Amino acid sequence: MLSSSWRVPALRRVLEPKGETVNKKFVIAWIVLFVAWLLGSFVVHGVVLRSDYMQLTNLFRAEGDEQKYFPLMILAHVILSGALVWIYARGAESKPWMVQGIRFGVAVALLTVVPTYIIYFVVQPMPGDVVIKQIVYDGVLMVLLGTIVAWLYRDAAAPLRAG
Question: How far apart are CA 150 and CA 80, in angstroms?
Fold first, then answer.
């Protein structure tokens, strides 16, 4: 078994953006993205798509049953937001932050949101119109999250120029 003295530095090396230490900016961005993603997901799935989901109660857990699994929802969002910040921080270029953020959000949506809901549609009897709404709304959320993380790392990018 590997000693803990090896594991911690190795983990730090994996997480460190571009040779820098895991710093305050990374932690702040992780927290901001966690809150934004959790709130955004609540708006998309708990508000905007709620009426669609209420018509499909046979496909989802009962509301009371969902609550006992909510800590796993928190854990998932902690992992998602940390990974999103980590990937962005490793690949941020010296280019306008907003363009990078939008491009990053679109890329992540195409990597995660779009194929995930298509796969769910194949294996779960979800109505096609609901799947399209899930893809569009979560896709927009992903672009917003990409833009937020780019803004948080904007000093790694060149400023936007008018005209």
Answer: 16
Q: pTM, whole model, 2 decimals?
A: 0.81
Radius of gyration of the chain (CA): 18
- 55-76 burial: b if 16+ Cβ within 10 Å, else e: eeeeeeeeeeeeeeeeeeeeee
CB 80, CB 144: distance < 8 Å: no
Per-residue pLDDT of 7-33, as tens digits, reads 555 555 555 545 555 688 999 999 999
Confirm if 105 and 31 have CB atoms less than 8 A apart: no
State the Cα–Cα distance between residues 95 and 101, nearest whole angstrom: 10
pLDDT tens, 69-116? Answer: 999 999 999 999 999 999 999 988 888 999 999 999 999 999 999 999
Q: How far apart are CA 125 and CA 103, in angstroms?
A: 32
Among residues 108, 116, 114, 74, which one has the least CA distance to residue 88?
108
